[in-house]
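Recall that a protein's primary structure is simply its ordered list of amino acids. Everything else, from secondary elements to tertiary packing, is in principle encoded there. The following example makes that idea concrete.
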Amino acid sequence: MKLHPFSLPLAFIMVAFIAGCGGDDNGGATGPSIPAPSDLTAIALSDSSVRLNWRDNSYSESGFRIERKAQVGEFSAIFTTNVDVKTYIDTAVTEGLPYEYRVFAITPRSSSIASNIAAVHTPPKPPTSFTAVKASGTQINLNWADNSAIETAYEIERRRSGAGGGAYARIAMLPANTIAYSDTGLTQNITYTYHIRALKDTIPSVWSGEARATTTVPTPNKPANLRAQPMDQHTISLTWDPLVPANERGFVIEQSLQEAIGFAIADSVPAGYGRANIGSLVSNTTYFFRIYAYNDSGRSPYSETVSATTLTGPPGAPTELAAVAPNYRCVVLTWRDNSVEETGFRIEKKITTGTRWDILVSLPANTVGYVDSAVTPSTSYSYRLYAFNDHGQSGYTNEARVTLPNGSPNPPTAMLATAVAPRQVNLSWTDNSEDELGFTLHRRPMGGSEATWITLADSLPTNTVTHIDNNVSPQGAYGYRIQAFNRIQGNPRRLLSAFSNEDTAMTPNGPPSAPSNLRAAAVSMTQINLQWQDNSNNETEFLVERRNLDGQTFAPIGTVPRNRISYPDTGLVHSTMYAYRVKALNEVGESEYSNIDSARTTNPVVFRDDFESYPVGQSPGGEWSDTIRGTSWIRVTNAQSMPAGGKSVQFHDPDVGANFCALDLSPQPMVSGTISFYIFIPQIGTFGVWGGDQTGYQTFTILFRTDGNIYARSGANFQICGAYALNQWLHIKISYSMMSHTYSIYVNDQAIAENLQTMRTDHFDNRRIRLIAVSDGEIPDVFIDNFMLDLRQVVASPRPLPPYQGNGLAKFDEVQIQGNMR
């Protein structure tokens, strides 16, 4: 553990400072000295590296200076370490030389005295490329590369490999510059491991890598006393004496139909055997035999040649019968012919579930296959056969069973889908059937195993192996599979093969497909709505273009984002025909245009009243009532009991609530609208309603709905007064400007007020004669359809207006809407 200087005894600290004033060998540095490192050791790691280790006794050093001295010369600095380092590997040394090292602790201003000196001697370079090669059963040859120029000897050690092999032991000390050695007197069939090192006097190099080799064994002796004896018409038995010594790994038996030539391997047996039976021979035939032994070192000489003749009898039984149904039309049979003396073969057949075997066919000698076409699809059959000659028949083969497929062709394989364009995928597959009538191709969009397959081509021709799918979209992922089909004769049902593998393709991006089925429909005087069919899945937006029918070119009017299939075109001129077209866009390009469609904005909407007549004091459904408040206020309404669609009339005495007359207009503004209606001013005093007063008031409100209906509601007041003759019809028109947000009022087409500010702006006519207006009182929403403005009898009056008849006060004649009402 490094100690802080202030934890050391004071006397030690004083000695250290005094020592720092001296002239020790510290590289000429000045200033207070610091404790020197100690316990320096030097260890040769190899012929080219030395490891140094020391104890760090100082606390404030900035590093350590390492000095080295070679065989001759003085110490010189070779490296300076960082603070607290305690080890260093010197890789700038030469093999076989002595070196001395010392270490100093240093600061920026001083250094310690030197550590103890550590001496080391580097070893020679070790040999490399060390190999061991077997030379015989008792000798292994060793070779290596001499890498050192200073070695005085080589030392080789050996041990047996494997479990129980023991430790290394020296087997040779060889002079300098030796590069080979033969290790003799070894044991046969034993693996030996070696390593080697160089020495410079008594200083060794590191050991080389290990080398192994296994001594060989002598080849076996010649087998003796070979004997041959026939067993039956197809088998000959061979025997021979055991080998001495028994160092064989096995025996190989050769046979021929001639004594000296034409030998071929008939069988082999492992070591220790002295007999073998050679079967599948031809009856009444002479065979010649010879054998040899073998081991890892080689083979023995051949034994003597012996012969034997098989007995006479039936042919040998065929074997390895196999039955394969390549399709539903036939079964292919194959077998091994084990005799040369047969006259022929007979095949027997049965339905597998049955018990009776029937002879299917008799075939000539040397036949090894047959095709059975008398089969039925989806049926299981069993087969067997035997050989025969004049001496009888062989035994049966094994029983071979096979089940025919249901008649469908072999499935195609190797389906490959390749996207070659944004709207084209090329398909190819392998046709594995010879009896298909065609192919059925299927496709599905990728995105999950639940995606629905569609039939892309129901009946591709026979032998087709390619197809082009042009009905795809850019940036689309598609899966493909295919199956073959045929039919059994006389059966119209299609027989389908299994599906091929599924392969997928991702089409690259391209311009989107053109939208279609564009439809334009006018919904008002100033708006036409567009709708179309989106035929692509890769558009980023749609561009809408428009032209007047009188115009020559289309011009863009707006865009909508992807997947949107509608566009409202607003701010149009009424009674005008417009034509439209749409195209899709993306980052690659643009589609063709859609079809062109056109529409005409509507004419101003005209609402007409049919002026239903009601007797005085009556109303539909009996829901009307009269309420009198005070001597000069008469109100005809009952808000609580009035049904939807009811009407009300309100009268005002001019002396009650100020001297004015008013027309209430809805606080909901209309858009550039015009309201036009007629009122009739009768001789009010005749009816006794106002006690002979010649001035009367009625107020009403007009409100617009976006569905085209107009209904009455109370609202802000627009004052209208004037001096007009009694017992005549007056035409009143109120116009609203969307641009200036002002109202103008006309009576009999004469402007009595223009550019009035919106909402609750009053207009007074100083002539103060009677004016009648209509109001809905407390009714929240009342439609104007068939609106009768007074309880007194009112008769319908077509335009032009006839002279006033009856006691009616006012009626609507016409309402024109020249813009969208909101």
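Confidence is low (pLDDT under 50) at residues 1-31, 604-673, 675-726, 758-822. The first helix runs from residue 10 to 19.
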